[in-house]
Hints:
- The structure is a single chain.
- It is built from five helices and seven strands.
- The chain has 162 residues and is an alpha/beta fold.
- Residues 36-42, 58-60, 79-80, 101-104, 113 line the site of S-adenosylmethionine.
Amino acid sequence: MSRLDSFIRRACAQRDCLDLAARLVSNLPGPVLELGLGNGRTYDHLRERLPGREIYVFERRVAAHPDCVPDFPHLFLGDIRDTLPGVAARLGEGAAIAHADLGSGNPAADAALAEFVDAALPPLMKARGLIVSDQKLAPAGCEPIPLPAGIEPGRYYIFRVR
Ligand code: SAM
């Protein structure tokens, strides 16, 4: 498969998983956590699909399209290992969706960060909330749910908090 095809498949998987998650939480109130702003594409998609939801974004350094930079109260700047643990009080309630898109292409660094996310994210979530991830995770107290049709296993991941 060409790198272009692979990129397109990943982007489609990402969009379809976020769309499924947005549909599944239509009756589950709560904020959204976006881990990894990057260019701001998925942040923009989430705010379009989930109008009215508070979306809190975690990013080491902002390099997004100017239209896709959250306002100051919704942006946690710094390494998520520093910013995520203290955020529960700011949220007020558990998150309905967390999207972790933190992949760097360095397998060792990604695995180490995934281990942190596995422990840090579930306590911030609401029961029945969804964790959508580009990396394979094993979040405590969560179970994987089936991916949208047509997405190869291992391309993207969705977990539901029990
Ligand atoms: N979702 C984004 C989009 O649609 O444009 C792409 C995200 S990009 C693949 C990954 C982002 O995660 C990068 O911007 C990187 O700076 C951020 N990131 C990676 N590790 C991080 C960490 N430990 N703390 C904070 N941000 C991190």
